[in-house]
Amino acid sequence: MTKSAWALRYAASMAVLNLLWELLQLPLYTVWANGSAHEILFAVLHCTAGDLLIAGLSLLAALALVQPHGWPQQRSIATGLLTLVLGAGYTVHSEWYNTTVTHLWAYSSHMPQIAGVGLSPIAQWLIIPCVALWWAHRPAQHDPVR
């Protein structure tokens, strides 16, 4: 698989899965109960775009640090693990900073937390990149039309 085909599969799966996750976790944030329809739509689109930015920059940083020759076929596990650590690490910091320091958003009483950071966004950045990386590495299925 070419690098561009791999990257397209990764980006597409990250986009779809993060959009779905953002929609499903809306009740865990106060914007769900207190925001207008416009504010909720903006939050979902803004957060999904942010997720894609985090995903892309985490992958690029991992590639720069691991410097895998022959990637994505070689050293994909090291690159994937570092991508996961960077994305989750940034997310933990961002959630803490935006809910505690700047108060740009807030959790509802339904959000489970650890050390003041929501578990849903942490789970998001542990689960979705794993699924997207797995999907990107799967061989493309070519079913000829008969």
Written account of the structure:
The protein is an all-alpha fold. The chain has 5 helices and 2 strands. It has a two-stranded antiparallel ribbon. A hairpin with a 2-residue loop joins strand 1 (113-114) and strand 2 (117-118). Helix 1 (3-24) runs antiparallel to helix 5 and helix 3 packs across helix 4. The model has no long low-confidence stretch (mean pLDDT 91).
Short description:
This protein is an all-alpha fold and 146 residues long. It has helices spanning 3-24, 31-34, 37-66, 76-101, 119-137; strands spanning 113-114, 117-118.
Class based on secondary structure composition and strand pairing: mainly alpha
Residue windows where pLDDT falls under 50 for at least 5 positions: none
The number of helices is: 5
Strand portion, in percent?
under 5%
Share of helix among residues?
A: 55-70%
Mean pLDDT: 91
Question: Could you tell me how far the N terminus lies from the C terminus, measured between alpha carbons in angstroms?
Answer: 25 Å
Largest sheet: 2 strands, antiparallel
Q: In angstroms, what is the radius of gyration?
A: 17 Å
Would you list the SSEs in sequence order as H and E?
HHHHEEH
Globular, elongated, flat, extended or rod-shaped: what is the shape? Answer: elongated
Strand runs, count? 2
Q: Tell me the strand order in the biggest sheet.
A: 1-2
Tell me the count of domains.
1
